Amino acid sequence: MTALTLSTAAAPGLRADAIVIGVAKGAGGPSVAPGAEAVDKAYDGRLAAVLETLGASGAEGEVTKLPAPSGFKAPVVVAVGLGAEPEKDAGFDPEALRRAAGAAARALAGAKKAAFALPLAEAADAGVVAEGLLLGAYSFDAYKASAKEAKGAKAKANGNGKAPLAEAALLGGKPRDKAYKAAVERAAAVAEELNRARDLVNTPPNDLDPEAFAAVAQAAAKEHGIKVQVLDEKALTKGGYGGILGVGAGSASGPRLVKLSYTSPKAKKSLAFVGKGITYDSGGISLKPAGHNETMKCDMAGAAAVFAAVVSAARLGLEVNVTGWLALAENMPSGSATRPGDVLRMYSGKTVEVLNTDAEGRLVLADALWAASQEKPDAIIDVATLTGAMMLALGSRTYGIMANDDAFRSAVHEAAEESGEPAWPMPLPEHLRKGMDSPTADIANMGERMGGGLVAGLFLREFVGEGITWAHLDIAGPAFNEGGPFGYTPKGGTGTAVRTLVRVAELAAAGELG
User: Fold this and answer.
1) Global pTM value
2) Which residues are catalytic?
3) pLDDT digits 0-9 by tens, 370-386
4) Burial code of 354-389, b = ≥16 C-beta within 10 A, e = fewer?
5) With contact defined as beta carbons under 8 Å apart, do 143 and 101 qualify?
6) Which of 39, 44, 42, 1 has the alpha carbon at shortest distance from 20?
């Protein structure tokens, strides 16, 4: 990962491959953002005019490169758009800073060092810039021969064959200020774990089956002092986890339920995070058609997010107990696979009639939610790439939040927005529950087609322990970016929900979670 430093050095004398500055979109054209005063002075105060001549407008994500002025040790200035110029005495939006830093870091692939002279009005700004550039510098080329040839087998290179930006200095940072140091250290820890979640999502399913995922979790748990328990097929059978076993029955790779427990001696609250971990989803007997299964390695993104969030909590030493449940299975068709019409007895004792084997995520989550409920946490949040219906409702960049408590749903939504993760609160309409009535079992795994994302949420609610506050994050849209990269978001796995979960844990530790 890109190495980070806080620096009080002046831009002209700093040895680097590039100086990154911010440009805002003003009413009369682009304007140079705070932090770049020394650079603008070297252009005799005409930097904005030069950028405008080159076609720059200050629009968000826009990147313009130009030769550095005479006397600078860095040969290139990289001007990155911050979007609309803020009102007088107002600072730049944190998400605008994140995205700008990410866009610049991606544009600097192959560079050894860059100096970021973006607006740092306070320590929090240093944190978001650090987070943005670390996430923006990410790439996944572990399976490309060109990457190994360029950097060696243990290094990852950018999609264009260039290694990610090696080092970044945040100019205007205060290396001796505890708040600045803490903000950057937090950003580095969360970004590293989020990028590990991206790696997991991007890993081909022939190399990441449930057993392999569990092994990754075990290794990380050992490294960071997290207690880990892995239930294999034998233990799942003995425990009666019918949902997880039913989904994994058709695969040669057996399912797993992984429990990660981070505990703080000062904790007053406990949280449970539950993640859907379908390492590949063919749809099972209800087979997905061609065109709908090529990216289904990403169907474990919820479990990856939960895993990353628990490790982040441990690395940050948060004063809250956090338990992560990774419900891992591979959904495949075979002679032993669960069939439409089969009835599964879940870990809770309830029976479920399986009407569609491609509605499998809710089955593994149901068992994990009930297991999490037995420990009586103060709140449970599950994360899943659950329904195409949620993508139709909210698009590819926003995830839906459902809950059994409106205040908690609002608190999670606020945490998501603070973290820079677009989300939207969704209802759980009671009239949709009737559509899941089954003449054979306690409940069916399918209901009305319209509002399918909400139906899935209602199904999951059935497996949350009585009196436990719960929220469900359907991240089907933003978990995997099939388009081009933007801001700090790469093509492929995005790590969606990691930052929301970490923020929720921080709020719980501070006694501020609604």
Assistant:
1) 0.96
2) 288, 362
3) 999 999 999 999 999 99
4) bbebbbbbbbbbbbbbbbbbebebebbbbbbbbbeb
5) no
6) 39
